[in-house]
């Protein structure tokens, strides 16, 4: 038996759909009432890479030559986050983003064959290349995060995120256009924007307000894959709070507890949620965040055939 999860058809992908309540979707959503298998949703696939593969990925990411790392600041000028681009540079030309392509490294194509495995899931079946052609690797030290943002129209509306080395909570937010009941108000200072400099990946959403509180969160275990497609990609913002630990109030928003692979983790999260529901303030169990790496794969549909592109093809 493979020590990683294989997903080969839309129907198989469908089994990993994260169940979110109907009323969480904005009424303006373009999602189908009965979405097709693998479309318009969040899909959480635990153990998408094996433990050996995870160790190797961490090593290759950490060993990347210094110039490969870009260092970015958040808005207050603190919390330096590091990231790497693979597959080429995305340049924005007006609304349209263009990829100046480069080949992916072996640790994404050979061992582990992440690109092939992700393409197989069928999440990118409708995109220009039926496969991701770009990857952003983010490093999050405990306490680092990314402000709520949307990934925007630069990409085919699908993103596949592999997490390694630590769990995190991805917080999912709605725009505050309709102020649904119970909304906590909204940012009116345009702060629904990314803290990190990947202008194409984390497109600032100026002038639009978002709800202050996350609608729900998705717990991503190390070695998992999270796929966000179609309306789920377009309708929500996502962010990672700058925390060193996730406590009961945060974990209570997690919608995929039942889908966690690690039984101890699942029991712990269940326990924290249950005791906080029962008003038990004595439970101080928390999930402590370690350094996490995320590999976010996307398809930039427009690819430059300029000199750099031609040279790369010949390699
Ligand atoms: O690290 C993650 O899981 C999310 C990163 C992200 O949202 C982005 O790079 O656009
Ligand atoms: Fe993002």
Automatic annotation (TrEMBL):
InterPro entries: AlkB-like (IPR027450), AlkB-like_sf (IPR037151), ALKBH6 (IPR032862), Oxoglu/Fe-dep_dioxygenase_dom (IPR005123). GO terms for molecular function: dioxygenase activity; metal ion binding. Residues 181-207 are annotated as: Disordered. The keyword Protein transport does not apply. Residues 191-204 have a biased composition (Low complexity). It is found in: Nucleus. Keywords: Dioxygenase, Iron, Metal-binding, Nucleus, Oxidoreductase. GO terms for cellular component: nucleus. The keyword Oxidoreductase applies. Residues 131-301 form the Fe2OG dioxygenase domain. Its main location: nucleus. Belongs to the alkB family. This is Fe2OG dioxygenase domain-containing protein. It comes from Jaminaea rosea.
């Amino acid at each position: 038996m493979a020590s990683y999860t294989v997903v080969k058809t839309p129907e198989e992908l469908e089994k990993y759909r994260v169940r979110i309540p109907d009323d969480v979707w904005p009424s303006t959503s373009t999602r189908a009432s009965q979405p097709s298998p693998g479309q318009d949703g969040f899909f959480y696939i635990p153990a998408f890479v094996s433990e050996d593969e995870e160790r190797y990925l961490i090593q290759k990411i950490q060993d990347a030559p210094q110039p490969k790392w870009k260092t970015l600041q958040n808005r207050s000028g603190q919390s330096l986050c590091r990231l790497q681009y693979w597959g080429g540079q995305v340049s924005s030309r007006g609304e349209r983003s263009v990829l100046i392509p480069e080949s992916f490294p072996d640790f994404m194509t050979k061992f582990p064959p992440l690109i092939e495995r992700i393409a197989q899931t069928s999440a990118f079946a409708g995109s220009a290349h039926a496969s991701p052609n770009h990857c952003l690797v983010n490093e999050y030290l405990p306490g680092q995060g990314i402000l709520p943002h949307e990934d925007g129209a630069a990409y085919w509306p699908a993103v596949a995120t592999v997490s390694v080395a630590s769990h995190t909570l991805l917080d999912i937010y709605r725009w505050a256009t309709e102020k649904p009941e119970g909304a906590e108000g909204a940012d009116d200072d345009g702060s629904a924007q990314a803290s990190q400099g990947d202008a194409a990946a984390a497109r600032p959403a100026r002038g639009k307000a978002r709800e202050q509180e996350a609608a729900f969160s998705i717990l991503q275990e190390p070695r998992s894959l999270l796929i966000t497609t179609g309306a789920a990609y377009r309708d929500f913002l996502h962010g990672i709070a700058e925390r060193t630990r996730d406590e009961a109030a945060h974990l209570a928003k997690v919608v995929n507890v039942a889908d966690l692979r690690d039984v101890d983790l699942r029991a712990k999260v269940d326990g924290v949620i249950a005791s906080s529901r029962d008003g038990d303030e004595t439970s101080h169990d928390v999930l402590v965040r370690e350094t996490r790496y995320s590999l976010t794969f996307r398809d930039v549909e427009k690819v430059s055939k300029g000199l750099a592109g031609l040279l790369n093809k010949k390699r």
